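Please decode residue identities from the backbone states below.
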């Protein structure tokens, strides 16, 4: 097989924020081993943390070194976004503040986290590579993505993503388990709306072994009930069982998201990504909303589009609207906090 010798010599810079956190710990080793960009692409890791976490990050760096990954050519650790985003082609924005017991409402989490993402957006605009693509994972990820995006007007809309792939994977696992088939048989599963409890996992247009999922499952009441709530509340269930939130599955979903953009989705299939709305399916323009996305897999990741022509029944429309109303409310709150310049 012929390999691209240029790609071999020039590492691709990937920035991971929150690199000393638990998602970071589950993610970095997979990136460095080649599972994100493939076995022929050297990587340079730019690891962004806050000052108090830098000593712990040094321990992670030691472990990365001790893996002797042949593809890992460079590691930079810093608390300065300008350094972290320097010439990066992928920015994986995982770093965020955790919800504490005092943060009762979603706006409390938004308030605690939003100020992180405005300066990061500005630093991305000033320092990232011309082809940069950004995946926001830190919660509330849709609103955080909107804030970063609003602070980097020169980076086009199509480069910004917030992660709903973990929700998609959770939904696929539930369908596969119910249908008693391997999870690889489930396709066309999209998450609509916000990465929150209002999200709408759409099983009605999904397929299992090429058949419509509702037909393969044969239990509409389950699809309208337990399926939805299990997916919507899966994060809480993992947290309750483990005592800490999802980490390995989140890191895995980050890899899945980037690989869908780079390698493309299978013909006729789609994935879930929250992207800047241009009014598709009557979703208000400008909010970062999860849609079914098909990707051509161009190397620069810009070859993707919102899948057209999906018809929701009344209940699905109501659920999607509830989630997009929440996105609008979060945008209003971010605006009130002065985090959306020009909006
Ligand atoms: P951790 O608390 O373990 O790690 C977060 C890390 O971010 C910490 O090391 C912290 O020092 C760092 N950090 C805080 N402020 C920062 C800043 N301004 N710049 C750089 N780093 C900063 O959380 P973890 O479990 O790793 O989760 C990370 C984020 O992902 C959380 O916001 C979490 O809610 C979110 N998640 C989102 C998911 C999604 O599907 N979109 C799923 C997984 C995860 O729960």
């Amino acid at each position: 097989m012929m390999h691209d010798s240029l790609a071999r010599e020039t590492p691709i810079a990937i920035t991971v924020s929150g690199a000393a956190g638990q998602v970071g710990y589950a993610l970095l080793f997979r990136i460095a081993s080649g599972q994100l960009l493939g076995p022929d692409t050297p990587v340079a890791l730019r690891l962004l943390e806050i000052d108090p976490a830098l000593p712990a990050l040094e321990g992670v760096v030691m472990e990365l070194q001790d893996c002797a990954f042949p593809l890992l050519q460079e590691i930079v650790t810093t608390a300065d976004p300008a350094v972290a985003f320097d010439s990066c082609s992928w920015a994986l924005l995982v770093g965020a503040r955790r919800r504490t017991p005092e943060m009762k409402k979603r706006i409390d989490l938004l308030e605690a986290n939003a100020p992180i993402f405005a300066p990061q957006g500005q630093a991305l605009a000033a320092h990232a590579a011309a082809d940069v693509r950004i995946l926001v994972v830190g919660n509330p990820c849709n609103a955080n993505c909107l804030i970063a995006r609003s602070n980097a007007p020169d980076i086009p809309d199509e480069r910004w993503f917030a992660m709903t792939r973990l929700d998609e994977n959770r939904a696929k696992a539930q369908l596969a388990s119910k249908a008693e088939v391997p999870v690889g048989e489930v396709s066309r599963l999209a998450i609509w709306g916000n990465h929150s409890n209002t999200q709408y996992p759409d099983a009605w247009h999904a397929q299992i072994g090429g058949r419509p999922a509702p037909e393969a499952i044969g239990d509409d009441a389950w699809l309208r009930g337990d399926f939805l709530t299990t997916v919507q509340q899966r994060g809480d269930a993992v947290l309750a069982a483990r005592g800490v939130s999802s980490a390995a599955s989140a890191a895995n979903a980050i890899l899945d998201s980037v690989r869908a953009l780079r390698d493309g989705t299978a013909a006729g299939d789609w994935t879930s990504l929250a992207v800047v709305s241009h009014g598709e399916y009557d979703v208000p323009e400008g909010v970062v909303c999860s849609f079914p996305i098909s990707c051509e897999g161009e190397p620069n990741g810009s070859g993707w589009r919102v899948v057209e022509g999906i018809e929701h029944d009344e209940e699905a429309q109501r659920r999607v609207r509830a989630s997009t109303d929440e996105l609008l409310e979060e945008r209003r709150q971010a605006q009130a906090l002065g985090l959306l310049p020009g909006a």
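Observation: Residues 1-7 have pLDDT under 50 and may be disordered.
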